[in-house]
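Quick question, first post here. What does this chain look like in 3D?
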Amino acid sequence: MKLQVLGSLFLLLAPAVGQAIWIVDRAGGPGVHFTEIQPAVLAAAPGDFIHVAAALGSYAGFTVSRPVTLIGGFGPVNAQTHVAGNVSITGIQAGDVCMIAGLSVGFAAGSGLTVTANAGLVHLEAISSWFCDVSFVDCSNVVLRQCSFAIGYNSSTCSMLRSQVAAIDCNFTSDYPSYASALDVSQSILSMQRFYARGANGGFGVPTPGVREFGSSLFCGPNTRLQGGHAVLPFGGSYSASGLVTNGGSLAGDPRAYISGGRTPMPQYRVDETNIERVRAGRTSSVDVNGPDAGVALVALSDVLPAPISLGPLGDLWLDQASLLILGLVPLDAMGRGQTTFAAPSQSDLGRRHVAQSLVLGPSGEVKLTLPSPFTILP
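> Answer (accepted):
Ran it through. Tokens below.
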């Protein structure tokens, strides 16, 4: 059994063959290919990796229009790779995957994040933006994981238009004196797992909702929290905006989701999910499961399949048998919550797409697959 587990771990973390790694570091030095990100993107072939060092100062903005994996944060523990400029991801073709992880954007004129006209998969992980525009337009498949987008103090906005987005373990916030909601969703499909959005507090002005929806389909997972901003009225009292304002779309969610303020009631059904916190090489991460009350979960990791395998009433399977790593059986408490851990080896294959998913068993014998949590291993 131990040999099987070790073999699975080897498969899960084995490096891909034939893919170049380009090193970017503002400081230059031996082994460094470029001191800015854009030249590295232009040099990279489809499937290549770009490793960007944390640096004193900021990198210039860049545009990605090919399926590469760009990972920031190399260097001292908890170091950040900051971009002062616009980061654009566009033109990723159907069947291709572009991943960008470990960057912060903002605090400079012209900064922003624009994800536009992508038929392929765009996976953004551990991306933070500060008081700059963030937009997703005409994208077929965007995965956001552990991203944090803060707008406010200027006219910045965060929006989705004609896009399909899965947001997992993300925070969207709007801060005074912004008059925008934390997120506007138009003609899009948005699935939220472990998701938080908060509108701007209005001071003596007008607070804003957490999310505004226009002709879209929204799903709220069990740990979704949509909260409106709060304002003190000039002549006494206070006012809070709704967590969600709907305009012609549809809404469904788990009864454990929370949406503040008045809203149209949503159809509710229990949803099981697995979530893994930020995974760093050489460190231990917690893996959380939300499943049936007083049930049990079999938790596993693997490389993520390009497309899920439908198992009918059990749900969709995203785990790859060839690289499967079983973490074990996890008991779920009376609220359906359980936790285990995953220790990522220090020599992990950074930037490769993995997934955490569980098979959960309820006390009455019902069996289901949880929603998956795609992730990559960061430095």
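The helical segments are 2-13, 37-43.
Residues 273-378 form a domain with the S-adenosyl-L-methionine-dependent methyltransferases fold (CATH 2.20.130.20).
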